[in-house]
Design the sequence.
C-alpha cells in the first residue's frame, strides 16, 4: 500500500493573531515549524514531502513562513503549498 498522509490542523485563532502581531509571529512560526519537524523527522529524512494546505491570504502567508522555517531547520526538506480558494470572494475579512 502507499504512503498514508498525516494531517495537522493549525489553530485558526492563533493563525489570525500571527498575522496581526509581528512580535508573536516569529515565535509561533518557529515553534510550530520545530514541532512539525520533530514530529515527522523520520519521514522528512526518508524524503517524504510536506504539503501545507492554506486558505486565504493569511493562510498563504503563514504557510510560506513556516515552510521557510522548515528549510532553515533542514534545507533538504521537500515542501509544497496548496492554496485553496473559494469560488467567490464574498466573505473577505478586509476590504483589500
Sequence:
Amino acid at each position: 500500500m502507499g504512503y498514508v498522509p498525516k494531517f495537522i490542523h493549525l489553530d485558526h485563532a492563533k493563525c489570525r493573531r500571527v498575522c496581526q502581531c509581528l512580535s508573536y509571529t516569529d515565535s509561533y512560526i518557529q515553534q510550530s515549524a520545530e514541532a512539525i519537524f520533530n514530529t515527522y523527522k523520520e519521514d522528512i529524512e526518508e524524503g517524504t514531502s510536506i504539503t501545507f494546505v492554506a486558505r486565504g491570504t493569511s493562510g498563504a502567508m503563514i504557510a510560506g513562513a513556516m515552510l521557510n522555517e522548515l528549510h532553515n531547520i533542514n534545507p533538504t526538506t521537500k515542501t509544497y503549498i496548496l492554496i485553496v480558494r473559494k469560488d467567490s470572494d464574498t466573505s473577505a475579512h478586509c476590504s483589500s
